Amino acid sequence: MELISIAAIIPLVKIIVGNNDFSDTFFFKDLENYTDVDLDQKSLIVLIMVLILAIFIIKALVIFFCESFKETYLKNMHDGLSSKLYKYYINIDYQKLSNFKLSDKLRHVGQVGFIVSFLKSSYIFVSDIILFVFLISFLFFFNFKMTLILAIILSIIALIITASSKKKIINYSKIAQKNVSATYENTISALRSMKEIIILKRRSIFDQRFNDAIYAITKFTRKNNLLRFLPKIIYEVVTIFIIFLIIIFLLIDGKSLINNLEILAIYVVALLKIIPSFNKIVINYQNLNTSYAPAKETLDELKNVKSENSVLNREVSNKNEIIFSDKIKINNLSFSYENGKDEVLKNINLEIKKGDIIGFYGPSGGGKSTFINLLLGLLKPTKGNIIINSLSIEKNLNSWHNSVSYVPQDIFLLNDTIKNNILFGINESEISQNLFEKALEISNLNEFLDKTPEGLNTIVGENAIKLSGGQAQRICLARSLLKETKIIFLDEATSKLDEKNEYEILEKLISKLQKDKTLIIVSHRVNTLKTFSNKVYKIDNKNIKLEYEK
User: Fold this and answer.
1) Which CATH class is domain 106-302?
2) Mind listing the pLDDT tens digit for each residue in 378-390?
């Protein structure tokens, strides 16, 4: 289409200079020979202008639809890769999270755009090289020597620009990439430890670290952008130089500019296509160098991603439904973390019967949370197993997770309303009003909500900064109660409550819930455990020992 649009300039120039003889022009010279159409000069001029206009309109439409197809394809690719990466992170084994660096994962998700940018630049790079070859080949038919000089000049300039900037652009990209990760990490760390930063007076240190990283990013981004802008201004000068060179070439060759105005026009119009095209070739080659490092890093990360089918297959393979009707049997359970050096738990044998209220306590670091995570199926035993109705929870995790609720020691609340934090992604219409009100009552939230002007619509703030620790824990408890299950795990779930509130909540929880519910409570308050539990176990020194039984 580009060649046809350039060729269409020949008859247009003839019209402008008043030369209405088209007998030597392709298509028009054979028009009367192959058709019975006999056009006078004015009609022929009108026909030529209509055809030229039609060519440019068709060209514009073709380019638009091609561009639309390309952008749609790249958008779908961006959506798909981002979703695949996020799905991998959210479906990864809990045990592997300890090896995760949050700032790196955030960067990988953000860098999916560099893969798309790399592909887009590759497409433009290749398509403009093809266009350049066709345009130069087309000009060879008009003047071989002049076109050869033109091609050599442009190629030499392109080689000089790319050779001198390639290493710098790649290096700048890697430095910027490294410092982007540093800004993520600094921001996350600062927001998570704001109290310590304020009291220990570390604000200036974190501020300086952030500013250093941002300075490095903007410094090398500036240099990168200048290197990518340079070809544009160089080729603008080259365009004028080449046009003057063509005029001088024609004059030295003893040719009249007026008589060769068509040739001159062809070269000028072709240059208006070639120079921007060549500029895009150079710029997109630089873009390829800029995008290569982050794109490769993210592609390497995507190689670790389990396909969606493997996740689905894992879900489908768990066909057995765990129905907790008798007891949880723990057989010779041992666990150590990945290095395998020190066992946290060793040869644990235990039974938890349906309807029991079981308490666990022990020193910090004794293995309480590890044991709960093993019971939940979040960690895999090094040895032994956990059996319910002759089914291993490890091999039937999805079904097992349908049977349990969990309130963690480490609270997480969205920066949203109290209601949305209780619902935690569930649509309000999916929960009965009676169940919602029951959860509020058991968790002792009603008294607190009555004192707040916005009630359930109160925004809790980032990291629940507007709430006390106890209020936040009660919201987490209410959240877990919306999932009506047979087993509820409370992992230090009331540790931030005073003893009065803790007592009231546990009393309501036990009295309001059905008698066949099983409660597994971890707490550092032994007296509370003895008050409400059938059995109390101490977890210490890799063992679990029965300390109290009603």
Assistant:
1) mainly alpha
2) 888 888 899 988 8
